[in-house]
Amino acid sequence: MNRESMFKILGCIGAIALAIAVPLLLSSIYWTSVLTMIVINSLMAASLRTILTIGEFSLGHVGFMCLGAYASALLTMKAGLPFGLTLPVAGLMSGLVAFVLGYPFMRVKGIYFAILTLVTSESFRLLAFNWRNLTGGIDGLIGFPGAGVLSIPGLGQVDFDGFTEYYYLALAVVSASLFILYRLEKSKLGFTWLAIRDADKMAGAVGVNVLRYKVIAFSIACFFAGIGGGLFAHFERALGPYPTASFGIITTLYLLTYMVVGGKGKFAGPIMGAIVLSLVYEFARPVEEYQPMIIGAIAIVMVMIIPEGLVSIPERIRKWRSGILD
Amino acid sequence: MGFLEIRKLTRFFGGLAAVMELDMDVGQGQIFGLIGPNGAGKSTVLNMIGGTLRANQGEIIFNGKEVTKLPSHMRAEQGIARVFQENLLFSSFTVLENVLVGYHLQSQIDLSSIFFKTRSKRIQEKALKRRVLDTLEFVGLAEYSNELAINLPHGIQRLLALAIALASQPQLLLLDEPVTGMTAEEVETMLIMIRTLREQRGITCIIVEHNLKAVMGLCDRIAVLHFGRKIAEGLPEEIVENPAVMEAYLGTEEDVT
Questions:
Q1: Which residue of A has its CA nearest to B168?
Q2: Using the beta-carbon criterion (under 8 Å), do B165 and A209 form an inter-chain contact?
Q3: Distance CA B205, CA B166 (A)
Q4: Residues in B touching A207 (Cβ below 8 Å)
Q5: Nearest chain A residue (CA) to B85
Q6: B253 CB contacts (<8 Å, ≥6 apart)?
Q7: Domain residue spans in chain A?
Q8: For a surface tag, which of A60, A102, B145, B166 has the fewest beta carbons within 10 Å of its beta carbon?
Q9: CATH: 2.60.40.10, 1.10.10.60, 3.90.1200.10, 3.40.50.300. Which one for B1-79+170-257?
């Protein structure tokens, strides 16, 4: 094992240990709920980056989160299914919808793909807005159960309705999801995605089914967006389809900002961006109307000063210390 | 039954007939040259054989199978590989990784290996890496294997593009201007390599090239395109003396002879 992978593993263990310890140290419901949102945002931003590995960017990631959120909420409420089942179903539903839409969508590239995802995301939101007898329409969806009691191997029956318990549940689900996303990216699948990003024509000429691999990347990314949505739904315990609320276009823009500020080149980038910017967002709550402006200003400054993102800072410091920085 | 048969192949761009009712037969093991003035439709023909462009009419029969409507990745499975005109490479990858992409069809995606790697999987990976290095050695790029593809000079990038195409184990290689922009020495290396491919592996080549000296010396047979139509076909010596070809290349007679 070389030094770099040692650092990576130590970094991961450190981050998880910190994530476990922080709510115990702060012991405030407010901060625990902020941390839960940060954890969910990390998964959303990291899965958005998965689409970037095939060289496309989606402006509709929040739409698939919306789909997962409503799916999980409605299944617990109307069908009485347990959260342990509705969460994976929420992911599968988003992934399946992305798979079906992926075939026509992935025939176009760049800005055209981005626009298609944008209108799709808005359509999902408007569907929730207009399908009153199912989604509650403009009144939103309230009164669905929380995570409830789940049996965890080794721990027995645990009630996840409390804020702290739910935080740990979200942390576990997101950590597992991030691990899967990371390993996928390092596998031959991820290697092929990057090859398509670099030169899709060439990849096709040596036998890569470009369309299929692109659709797989899109579906996996949207699967985890659905999981993020499910986690979000049972955390908030209320869903609303308003354009200015969680499932509006602004959330996708925030996710893109997390990714760029954190650094889109590395897997840890979007996660780091989600953590730092979500904290900035929270601290800016007293001046609520300026929140988007503050986040936007940070994004502009970051892109101009450190275009590779926050994640590149340690490397920059190392280079600067060894005097190579020009 | 021929190796590659092209019948009445036609492609329009808007109202313009880029290729018009082209008939062409390429035999197995042949090095076939496709020449003609700029805009004659040479690259369009290669694109249609390679599958990056769909033909409007006509058919392409490869090894007795019709491939006219297959997408390019399925033609790669049939054994058709392509070296593109521009230096199209996987630019963020190393030289070794570039060729590894070429081996896509020879290696499977195993979902269980996402979480752990079995011993046999590791052995497989090692064997694949060995084959990649062999391919790189063949084109003479083994020493560059850990360099980023984008940092290589033009001539070396062309060789790398050839190595990627070879990795897919083709029977038919489509070369779009393989020696354009190369130094005289690099041109010589490339020509020797194409001949070796034919002799050692029996690979058939179709070459589109502006460097007529190279084409004349290399090809067994040459077809000349002009405004999308084939105006001549034959041995290099016949082509040089063909008056219709002279006319198409008017003003560049010196190059031909």
A1: A206
A2: no
A3: 12
A4: 73, 76-77, 104-105, 168
A5: A202
A6: B246
A7: 24-248
A8: B145
A9: 3.40.50.300
In A131-267, which residue ranges form alpha helices assigned H by DSSP? Answer: 132-135, 163-186, 188-198, 200-205, 210-236, 249-262
Minimum Cα–Cα distance from B106: chain A residue: A207
Location of each CATH 3.40.50.300 domain in chain B: 1-79+170-257
> Chain B residues with CB inside 8 Å of A199's CB?
88-91
E strand or H helix at A4: helix A3-26
Per-residue pLDDT of B117-172, as tens digits, reads 778 888 888 888 999 999 999 888 888 988 898 888 888 888 899 999 999 899 99
Q: Does A58 touch chain B (CB under 8 A)?
A: no
Q: Is residue B120 within a helix (H) or strand (E), and if so which, with residue range?
A: helix B119-139
Q: Which residues of B touch A194 (CB under 8 A)?
A: 90, 92-93
What are the pLDDT tens digits along chain A (326 aa)? Answer: 577 788 888 888 888 888 888 888 888 889 999 999 999 999 999 999 999 999 999 999 999 999 999 999 999 988 888 888 999 999 999 999 999 999 999 999 999 999 999 999 999 999 988 888 888 878 888 888 887 777 777 777 878 888 888 999 999 999 999 999 999 998 889 999 999 999 989 999 998 999 999 999 999 999 999 999 999 999 988 888 887 778 988 899 999 999 999 999 899 999 999 999 999 999 998 888 898 899 999 999 999 999 898 988 888 888 888 876 55
CA angle B63, B65, B70 (to 5 degrees): 115
**What DSSP string describes B36-89?**
-STTSSHHHHHHHHHTSS--SEEEEEETTEE-TT--HHHHHHHTEEEE-SS---
Which of B170, B8, B197, B9 lies closest to B75 in space, CA to CA? B170
Report the residue of A187, A202, A208 to disrupt the B interface, i.e. the one with the largest count of B CBs within 10 Å.
Answer: A202
Show the tokens assigned to B190: 């490339």
Q: Which of B82, B84, B90 sits opposite A198 (nearest CB)?
A: B90
Q: How far apart are CA B148 and CA A240, in angstroms?
A: 49
Predicted model pTM:
0.90
Q: Please indicate if any CB of chain B lies within 8 Å of the CB of A81.
A: no
Residues of chain A neighbouring B105 (CB-CB closer than 8 A)? 206-207
Work out the angle at residue B231's Cα, subtended by the Cα atoms of residues B228 and B233, and round it to the nearest 5 degrees. Answer: 115
Is residue A247 within 8 Å of A241, Cβ to Cβ? Answer: yes
Which residues, numbered 172 to 201 in chain A, qualify as contacts with chain B under a Cβ-Cβ cut-off of 8 Å?
180, 183-184, 187-189, 191-192, 194-195, 197-199, 201
| β-sheet with B80-83: strand ranges across | B80-83, B172-176, B204-208, B31-35, B221-226, B229-234
The answer to whether B77 contacts A201, with C-beta atoms less than 8 Å apart, is no
Model ipTM? 0.86
Q: Please name the residue of chain B whose CA is at the shortest distance from the CA of residue A179.
A: B115
